[in-house]
Amino acid sequence: MTVGYDRDNLPSCWQEFNHINRYWDRKIGKPTAKLLPGEYYVTSHDEVITTVLGSCISACIRDPICGIGGMNHFMLPIQVDNALSTDFGRAERYGNYAMEQLINDILRNGGRRENMEVKIFGGGRVMKGVTDVGAKNIEFVKHYCELEGFQVLAEDVAGNYPRKVNYIPKTGKVFVKKLYSKHNDTIETRDENYFEKISNRDVSGNVELFD
């Protein structure tokens, strides 16, 4: 029997995700978790994970056998000088951490590496005055998936526009809306502020994947 949810009766989430903004989306008709830059979310419920991406990347990963999956939203903290990265190793560590947080939570809750499906989105060139951070993000996530043996089943990346992504881990469906026309600079400003913040932040130590 399908459980009926409403805005006052959302399915419970795991404790580590209590800070995520969750609500009932009347248009979609499902519980929805909204991600900001630097956040990720994993669920076993029939709910939507949504975010708006500029230069950032979201990896949508799930184990379709056990029905657990999630999404992250991250950007590499690349310091640039004349359009060249001065510390890509640091950036890789940050990207690894963002990916492994998501993957480890799926594995911890019953997922298996060999079952995982990966879809990637974002990496648009929306920030002015810096190198193409979006392209670096795309390069990183594709290289990461290749090294870890994950096949990328679908992608919608690059371009000069932001995009809204709705992901349903239970079914693996992804809905992407390309935001060609912006009436303000909210997304660009958000990405620039986040880029500056993470570029001055210490990176956590290496995170190992569970078997």
| Cα shape | globular
In which range does the helix fraction lie?
A: 10-25%
- The CATH architecture category equals 2-Layer Sandwich
The CATH class assignment is Alpha Beta
What name does CATH use for the topology? 60s Ribosomal Protein L30, Chain: A
Indicate how many domains the architecture comprises.
Answer: 1
Our count of helices gives 3
Please give the structural blueprint.
Layout: E1 21-25, E2 30-34, E3 40-43, E4 48-53, E5 57-63, E6 68-72, E7 80-81, E8 84-85, H1 88-108, E9 117-122, H2 133-148, E10 152-157, E11 163-168, E12 173-178, H3 186-199
Parallel strand pairs: 2-4, 9-10
Antiparallel strand pairs: 1-2, 3-6, 4-11, 5-6, 5-9, 7-8, 11-12
Helix pairs in contact: 1-2
Name its key features:
211 residues, alpha+beta, 60s Ribosomal Protein L30, Chain: A, 5-stranded mixed sheet, 3 helices, 12 strands, 28% strand
Description of the molecule:
By secondary structure, the chain is α+β, with helices and mostly antiparallel strands. It has one domain (15-199): 60s Ribosomal Protein L30, Chain: A. Helices cover 24% and strands 28% of the residues. The protein has three helices and twelve strands. It has helices at residues 88-108, 133-148, 186-199, and strands at 21-25, 30-34, 40-43, 48-53, 57-63, 68-72, 80-81, 84-85, 117-122, 152-157, 163-168, 173-178. The strands form three sheets. Strands 1-2-4-11-12 form a five-stranded mixed beta sheet, with no helix packed on it. A five-stranded mixed beta sheet has the order 3-6-5-9-10, covered by helices on one side. Strands 7-8 form a two-stranded antiparallel sheet. A hairpin with a 2-residue loop joins strand 7 and strand 8 (84-85). Helix 1 packs across helix 2. The chain is globular and about 45 Å long.
